[in-house]
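quick q for whoever's on today - can somebody do inverse folding on this one?? i tried earlier but teh output was garbage lol. tokens:
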């Protein structure tokens, strides 16, 4: 039986206990088609995590009070929780957190240590709070946005604050040209409510839920990218999704694997391809091969100029 089957079985047993039902070793062993010793190990693990909440009578177990199943988190879920806590400064004593949440954070920090890319620090908390209110109440904002050339002022319909690639973006539309834009929150120097509201575009809402990179384009139709990943690096693609849409769809006779992505622009996979070349081959579309050839030529030209 695989590790994923074992996890699924434990979670289902937890759900039964959390619903107030009695679970018995022999019955569970029959249901799951495993040895009695396997079920006993599962229940021993549950009792180790939840302690005296789970009581034992012979070979049967029952939880005398409800407990939160989300106390058992995977590493990536713990990382998300850690990110949220750090961003919102929820660790401060002035912020009220449920005791179970505090306990989860403390317990997980004893096990996990995350070393990810630098997290964008939001200096202007007032801007962030203004964006949060605007999203919640669908308010139009007057925004001052910092660019290399000059500060821009415009009215913006903000749909969501999106955290992607370690940066925060306010995603929405300018009222003047209706273009969908990703505004770096740290580059918004000022924001105030205009008093106007707006109706959400359901298609834009759906697009935002599928965002993989800040290079996504709302008006572009999605396209499928197919890569052939060399067998010597395939373990990395099997262990990690480099974009949320990543899917392993086949394996070649020599052990290479076929991986698919769904994107809106070639730029969304450019950094991924640059990272893994020459151990990945672009199967389709052909236009992406031309795009990458030009991107590589431009980088080589830049390197040559820097040497002069």
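ok took a stab at it. sequence:
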């Amino acid at each position: 039986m695989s590790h994923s089957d074992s996890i699924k079985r434990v979670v289902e047993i937890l759900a039964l206990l959390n619903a107030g039902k009695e679970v018995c070793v022999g019955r569970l062993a029959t249901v799951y088609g495993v040895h009695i010793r396997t079920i006993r190990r599962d229940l021993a693990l549950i009792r180790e995590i939840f302690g005296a909440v789970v009581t034992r009578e012979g070979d049967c177990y029952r939880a005398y009070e409800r407990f939160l199943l989300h106390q058992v988190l995977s590493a990536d879920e713990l990382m998300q929780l850690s990110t949220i806590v750090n961003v919102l400064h929820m660790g401060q004593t002035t912020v009220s957190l449920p005791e179970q949440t505090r306990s989860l954070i403390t317990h997980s920090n004893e096990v996990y240590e995350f070393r990810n890319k630098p997290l964008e620090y939001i200096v202007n908390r007032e801007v962030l709070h203004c964006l949060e209110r605007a999203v919640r109440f669908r308010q139009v904002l007057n925004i001052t946005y910092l660019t290399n050339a000059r500060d821009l002022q415009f009215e913006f319909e903000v749909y969501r604050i999106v955290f992607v690639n370690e940066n925060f973006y306010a995603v929405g539309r300018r009222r003047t040209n209706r273009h969908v834009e990703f505004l770096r929150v740290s580059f918004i120097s000022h924001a105030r409510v205009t008093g106007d509201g707006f109706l959400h575009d359901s298609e834009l809402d759906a697009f935002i839920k599928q965002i993989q990179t800040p290079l996504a384009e709302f008006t572009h139709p999605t396209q499928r990218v197919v890569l052939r990943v060399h067998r010597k690096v395939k373990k990395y693609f099997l262990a990690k999704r480099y974009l949320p849409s990543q899917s392993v769809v086949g394996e070649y006779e020599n052990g290479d694997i076929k991986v698919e992505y769904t994107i809106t622009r070639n730029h969304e996979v450019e950094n991924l391809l640059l990272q893994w070349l020459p151990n990945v081959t672009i199967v389709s579309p052909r236009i992406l091969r031309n795009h990458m050839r030009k991107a590589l030529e431009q980088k080589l030209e830049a390197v040559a100029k820097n040497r002069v």
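fwiw The first strand starts at residue 23 and ends at 24. also DSSP finds ten helices and twelve strands in the chain. so keep that in mind when u check it
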